[in-house]
Amino acid sequence: MKKHILTALAAVVLGSMAGFGRETLPPLKGGSAPQSFTGLWADFDPRAQPLDVEVLKEWEQDGVVLKVLRYRVGVFKGQKAMMAAVYGYPKGGENLPGLVQIHGGGQYADYRAVFTNAKRGYATISIAWAGRINAPDYNVTPDVVKLFWENKTDDPNYKLTTDWGVLDGYHAPCRNKGNQFPSVKAAEWTLDSVESPRNSPWFLCTLGARRALTFMELQPEVDADKLGVYGHSMGGKLTVLTAGSDPRVKAAAPSCGGISDRYNDNRLFRSTLGDDIYLKNISCPIIFLSPANDFHGRINDLPKAVEEVKSDEWRVTCSPHHNHQDTAPYEVATQLWMDQFLKVVFAWPETPETTLKLKTDSGIPSFSVAADDSKPILSVDVFYTQQGQIDGLKDDRKNTIARFWHHVNAVRKGGQWVAQLPLFDVHKPLWVYANVTYPLDEPVSGAGYYYGTYTTDQFNLSSLVQMVMPEQLQSAGVKATLEPSLVIETFTKDWKKEWFTYKPEEWARKTHKIYDPQWAAPDGAKLSLKVRSAKPNKLVVGIDNYAAEVDLSGGTGWQKITLSASDLKNAEKAGMADWNGIKELRLGAVETLRGKETTRRVGAQWKGEPPQFRTLQWIVE
Domain 353-441+461-483 class? Predict the structure, then answer.
């Protein structure tokens, strides 16, 4: 048995003899809160106290042992805090790599992540820092969490779950209505009576994740030297906080978080819990899953994040157009990353090297990609936009979500892949990056950001995004060669790469092209589209919070649709006033419109083969 495991076991035994009355964290010295990363974590030993593990439910499923359990996070103000979780591993497994999975805001600890990882040879603990759990016959919803808070043990739905004791590390909702999750301010539910980073639930949940690592290294089926951590959204930030504060983490994979929480107005928060502080302490291999339109982990911050980490082993994967969700070729990055650094059964290609050339004879920027061809390359795709946040300025959340990425299918020239980037305006910045798609030797299955199971036979590797300012474009002689266009889409060649979906198995698609000034609607314009549907159906044309339901007659002919802005209605059936400020256009079969007080379903289940489209355009009569 390894020395550090013996040390941890000894600490657990001694802690058990001492009882749980000993405080996990000492009182503040002189009443002064920690002011730095080092000061915040100096007095915490994640192995010092017993885990007091309680197994609440145990079952086997298709060769996987699964448990709902609780373990001790610590003792705070004389009360024990317990973290609920789902744990599982392949039955009979030995020396397994172990994963800590951390859910996001509003999410649950979920057995599907544990189960799918176990089928791939991992032990996993999915921690329920907000108290919510999804497992067969052990489902803890927000209402059940409230029953637990209120100690309604007589209620038939009551279940044990995460107990933060006198503190409040919950979220969506927090136990106390006045609890602002990032806050370091003092309150009746905080550890310290002065402004302190130890008051923030970010700190508490990171304590809980580090204690999960202690749980994992003590499990007989787990190899304690092969521990990884991953999580989505708030779980992405917690992944960075955990990897940055605990050297036991040997691989990390944050998605949609952990790179952009560096601009908090509170100096104390920034110096103790800001993303950059922890990134600078990460020495393990790390991969960032960062959709290009994500509001929480913004692609603009990736270059800084990569520069900050100590590890030379890093990658990024960035799906175009997506916001806080992804599809399988991007989600699978987590599993493949752990395969390389914990199981040593996979090898990632190197990050694509890119060169942006502004001075060209044509005045059109050229973007070259040197892609690692140690594996077969399926495609090299270049995405660029002139819509985004200029570094250092306050982020515009709506603009971040809606920014449109032009697609160029790069052409191979010798050892490089080259794409031309025609621009609409040289008075706006330019952002550009490349995606390289590779095949997998065998399909990989897993549970995605929101635990939906997927299988994919390919994966994506991205370059870092590059940004150039307008003055750079102008000084290099770049010309604006794109002109306004009434034709929004021809539905030919690679058109789907400028549209997106989170359900690629379905035909419905969305795009932000109408937000780009190249396709701005002229005053008084109508929207026109040609559709062919083999059977009578209803087509839904949606724009932002509005939609029109169009009857399709069916048959072999093309049916022309013409819509005024007022033809699109919101949840309250009020028509759209005009096309000004529109951001997202959707074509689909069914959708639900949501208003402040009502919802409305439009469309119907599609019948027969998917529709065909021709020429989506603005018509000025």
Answer: mainly beta
How far apart CA 122 and CA 99 sit, in angstroms, is 7
pLDDT digits (tens, 9 = 90+) for 295-318: 999 999 999 999 999 999 999 999
- 474 phi and psi, to 5 degrees? -70, -45
| Nearest alpha carbon to residue 514 among 503, 501, 525 | 525
Pairing state between β 222-232 and 249-255:
parallel
Cα angle, residue 493 at apex, residues 561 and 564 outer, rounded to 5°: 20
Place of tokens 């060669």: 481
DSSP-assigned beta bridge partners for residue 100: 125, 229
Q: Which two tokens stand for residue 402?
A: 């809606």
CA Rg, the chain, in Å?
A: 26
Rounded to whole angstroms, the Cα distance separating 323 from 607 reads 29
- Rounded to an integer, the average pLDDT of 433-440 is 98
Instruction: Give 539-566 pLDDT, tens digit per residue.
Output: 999 999 999 999 999 999 999 999 999 9
CA distance 616 to 613: 8
Overall pTM > 0.85: yes
129 φ, ψ (degrees, to nearest 5): -65, -25
| Distances, alpha carbon 205 to alpha carbons 81, 131, 149, 159, 241, in Å | 11, 11, 18, 21, 9
Phi, psi (deg, nearest 5) at residue 402:
-100, -10
pLDDT digits (tens, 9 = 90+) for 132-160: 999 999 999 999 999 999 999 999 999 99
- Whether omega before 173 lies within 30 degrees of 0, making that bond cis, reads yes
Query: What is the token pair recorded at 562?
Result: 């013409």
Q: 208 by DSSP, 3-state: which?
A: helix
Write down the residue that tokens 């020239």 correspond to: 413
Phi, psi at residue 516, to the nearest 5°? -75, 135
Strand, coil or helix: 302: helix
What is the average per-residue pLDDT within 30-52? 96
d(CA 231, CA 175): 23
The Cα–Cα gap between 99 and 213 comes to 8
Measuring CA to CA, how many Å separate 472 from each of 58, 133, 383? 62, 51, 19
353-441+461-483 and 488-619: same fold?
A: no
Instruction: Give the DSSP H/E element, type plus range, for residue 535.
Output: none
The 3-state DSSP class for residue 340 equals helix
CB 558 within 8 Å of CB 574: no
Please state which CATH number belongs to domain 488-619. 2.60.120
**Centroid of chain to Cα 55:** 30
> CB under 8 Å to 125, separation ≥6 — which residues?
85, 86, 87, 98, 99, 100, 101, 114, 212, 215, 216
* DSSP-based three-state secondary structure for 486: coil
Cα angle 253, 255, 258 (rounded to 5 degrees) comes to 85
Residues 190-204 have a mean pLDDT of 98
H-run or E-run covering 270: helix 267-273
Q: Which residue has the tokens 């036991």?
A: 248
Q: What is the DSSP letter of 28?
A: P
Residue ranges of domains in the chain: 3-228, 353-441+461-483, 488-619
CB 541 within 8 A of CB 508: no
